C-alpha cells in the first residue's frame, strides 16, 4: 500500500462532483478557486510531510489491520503513544500552515470513537456495525482519504429537542429506512475543512432520548454525495481572500454549512441507525479525545505567533529579547494547553474494543483553557507587533506595488535598514491574519462550548469527597453536609 502524494490528493479532489458554493457561485475546482484553494493547500502539506524524513514518523504509521504503512490520520489509536501522536500531528500542522486542517482531525477521531461504540452496540443488539466500519477504515487507509467530521447541527430552537422542532431538518435525521440503506435529510453547520475533504463522517450532535431516535445517526458519506449542497461560510478574511500577494498566506481554513436533502446512504456506510441509547456514549468518547488533542492545535499556532512577534520586533529594528517576558508568557500559554491535553491522554485508558479514551475531567478542563489562553497569546503578539498589525491601518498589496505611488508606500512601511519593506509587510500581515483574520481557529466554540465543558468538570468534581478530605485534615468530628434546599 503506497502512501499517497500531494498530486494524488489533488487529483482525487478534482475528480469530485462540484457541489460547493460561495457568494452564490458554484466552485468547479476547489483546488484552484480562491475561496477554497488555501484550505486545500493546508491539507496538501500533510501529504508532503508524509514523505519528508523530518516529519514522516508523525504523519505516517503502520496499519493495525494490515501491517502496511499508512497516513496516520486514518489510523486506530489503541494506546497512549498513538493518541499522543494525534497531538504531535496537530501541533506540527499548525507550525507549517498557521491554521487548522479539519479534514485530518475530526474524521480521524470519529472513526476511533465509533470503533468503540459499534463494539458496544453489536454486543447488545447483535448488529454488525463494527464489521462495516472496519471495511470502510481499510478503504480509507488504502486511499489515504481526507475525512471531515460533522457533529454540530443547525439545532433550531435551543429550548426544544430535535423531535420537537417546527422544522425537522434543523438536526440531521433518518428520514427513511430501506432494506439496502437509509435516506437522510437535515443541516449540519460550521463544519471545518469540508472543501478539502474526500469524505465526511457524520455523528449525532448530542445525546438523544427515544423520542429523538430518528436523529441517532452515524454514517460516512462522500463529500460529493447526491443531494448534498455545501455552502462555504464567510470568514473574517473574506474581504482579502481574492487578493494577490502577501495580503494573506497561501494556507487557510474554511467552514461550511452541509445541507442534506434526501441523500441515500447504503448500509455498508451506516454505523448507527436509531440506537439512541448510545448517542451519549459517542459524545462522551468524542469530546474526551477531541478536547484533549485541541490543546496541541492552539499550541502549534501559538508557536507561529511567537515567531511572528519576533519577526515584527526585528523588522521594527528591535531585538526579540526586548519583549522576552511577553514571549515567555506566550510560551507558557502554549505549553499549558498542550500539556493539559497530554495529561488527559495519560490519565485515559483503552476501551475493551481497543481504542484509547482520554480522561474526561482533564480533557474538558483543557477545553476551558483553550477557550481563554490563546486569546491572551494573540493579545501579546499584537502588543509586540505594534499598531501596524492590529489597527487595520495597512495598505493593500496592490497599493504597495502600485506603479504610481507604491514606492512611496514602501518607504513609509520600511523601518530597519536591515530588512526590506516587503519583509516587514509580510510579517505584519501574518500577525494580523493569526490574531484577527481567518487564521484564528475556533478557540471559544470549536469542538464545543466552554460552558458545556464546565458542566462536565462540575459533574466529575466530587465536592463532598473533597470536603471529607478537608474535614479529616482539620480534625473536625461532626458531619458538615450541604444545606437542604429551601422549599418554595
TrEMBL record:
Entry superkingdom:
Bacteria
The record's SUPFAM superfamilies line, in alphabetical order, gives:
Acyl-CoA dehydrogenase C-terminal domain-like, Acyl-CoA dehydrogenase NM domain-like
Alphabetized UniProt keyword annotations: FAD, Flavoprotein, Oxidoreductase
For this protein, the record's InterPro entries field holds: Acyl-CoA_Oxase/DH_mid-dom_sf (IPR046373), AcylCo_DH-like_C (IPR036250), AcylCoA_DH/oxidase_NM_dom_sf (IPR009100), HpaB/PvcC/4-BUDH (IPR004925), HpaB/PvcC/4-BUDH_C (IPR024719), HpaB/PvcC/4-BUDH_N (IPR024674)
Gene3D superfamilies attached to this UniProt entry: 4-hydroxybutyryl-coa dehydratase, domain 1, Butyryl-CoA Dehydrogenase, subunit A, domain 2, Butyryl-CoA Dehydrogenase, subunit A, domain 3
Looking at the record, the residues that make up the HpaB/PvcC/4-BUDH C-terminal domain are 280-475
Q: What GO MF annotations does this protein's record show?
A: oxidoreductase activity, acting on the CH-CH group of donors
Looking up Pfam families in the UniProt record yields: HpaB, HpaB_N
User: Where does the HpaB/PvcC/4-BUDH N-terminal domain start and stop, copy by copy?
Assistant: 5-272
Protein's name in the database: Aromatic ring hydroxylase
Q: Which organism is it from?
A: Pelotomaculum thermopropionicum (strain DSM 13744 / JCM 10971 / SI)
Amino acid at each position: 500500500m503506497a502512501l499517497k502524494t500531494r498530486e494524488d490528493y489533488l487529483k482525487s479532489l478534482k475528480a469530485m462532483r462540484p457541489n460547493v458554493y460561495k457568494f452564490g457561485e458554484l466552485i468547479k475546482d476547489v483546488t484552484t478557486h480562491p475561496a477554497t484553494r488555501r484550505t486545500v493547500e493546508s491539507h496538501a502539506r500533510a501529504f508532503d510531510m508524509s514523505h519528508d524524513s523530518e516529519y514522516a514518523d508523525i504523519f505516517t504509521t503502520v496499519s493495525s489491520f494490515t501491517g502496511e504503512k499508512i497516513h496516520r490520520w486514518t489510523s486506530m489509536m489503541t494506546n497512549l503513544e498513538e493518541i499522543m501522536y494525534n497531538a504531535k500531528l496537530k501541533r506540527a500542522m499548525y507550525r507549517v500552515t498557521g491554521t487548522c486542517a479539519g479534514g485530518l482531525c475530526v474524521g480521524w477521531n470519529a472513526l476511533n470513537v465509533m470503533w468503540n461504540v459499534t463494539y458496544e452496540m453489536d454486543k447488545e443488539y447483535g448488529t454488525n456495525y463494527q464489521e462495516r466500519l472496519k471495511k470502510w477504515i481499510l478503504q480509507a487507509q488504502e486511499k489515504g482519504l481526507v475525512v471531515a467530521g460533522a457533529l454540530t447541527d443547525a439545532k433550531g430552537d435551543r429550548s426544544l429537542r430535535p423531535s420537537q422542532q417546527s422544522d425537522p431538518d434543523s438536526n440531521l435525521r433518518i428520514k427513511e429506512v430501506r432494506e439496502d440503506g437509509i435516506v437522510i435529510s437535515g443541516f449540519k453547520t460550521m463544519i471545518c475543512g469540508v472543501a478539502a475533504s474526500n469524505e465526511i463522517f457524520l455523528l449525532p450532535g448530542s445525546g438523544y432520548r427515544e423520542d429523538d431516535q430518528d436523529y441517532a445517526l452515524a454514517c460516512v458519506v462522500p463529500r460529493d454525495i447526491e443531494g448534498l449542497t455545501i455552502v462555504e461560510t464567510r470568514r473574517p478574511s473574506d474581504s482579502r481572500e481574492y487578493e494577490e500577494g502577501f495580503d494573506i498566506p497561501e494556507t487557510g481554513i474554511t467552514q461550511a454549512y452541509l445541507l442534506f436533502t434526501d441523500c441515500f446512504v447504503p448500509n455498508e456506510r451506516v454505523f448507527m441507525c436509531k440506537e439512541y441509547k448510545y448517542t451519549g456514549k459517542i459524545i462522551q468518547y468524542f469530546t474526551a479525545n477531541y478536547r484533549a488533542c485541541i490543546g496541541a492545535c492552539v499550541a502549534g499556532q501559538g508557536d507561529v505567533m511567537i515567531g511572528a512577534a519576533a519577526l515584527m520586533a526585528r523588522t521594527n529594528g528591535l531585538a526579540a529579547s526586548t519583549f522576552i517576558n511577553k514571549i515567555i508568557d506566550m510560551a507558557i500559554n502554549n505549553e499549558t494547553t498542550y500539556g493539559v491535553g497530554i495529561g488527559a491522554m495519560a490519565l485515559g485508558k483503552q476501551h475493551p474494543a481497543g481504542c484509547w479514551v482520554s480522561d474526561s475531567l482533564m480533557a474538558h478542563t483543557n477545553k476551558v483553557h483553550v477557550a481563554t489562553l490563546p486569546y491572551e497569546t494573540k493579545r501579546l503578539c499584537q502588543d509586540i507587533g505594534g499598531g501596524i498589525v492590529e489597527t487595520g491601518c495597512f495598505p493593500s498589496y496592490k497599493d504597495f506595488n502600485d506603479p504610481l505611488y507604491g514606492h512611496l508606500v514602501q518607504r513609509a512601511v520600511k523601518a530597519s535598514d536591515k530588512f526590506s519593506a516587503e519583509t516587514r509587510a509580510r510579517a505584519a500581515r501574518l500577525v494580523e491574519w493569526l490574531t484577527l483574520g481567518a487564521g484564528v481557529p475556533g478557540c471559544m466554540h470549536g469542538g464545543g462550548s466552554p460552558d458545556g465543558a464546565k458542566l462536565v468538570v462540575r459533574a466529575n468534581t466530587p465536592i463532598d469527597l473533597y470536603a471529607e478530605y478537608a474535614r479529616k485534615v482539620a480534625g473536625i468530628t461532626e458531619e458538615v453536609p450541604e444545606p437542604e434546599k429551601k422549599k418554595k
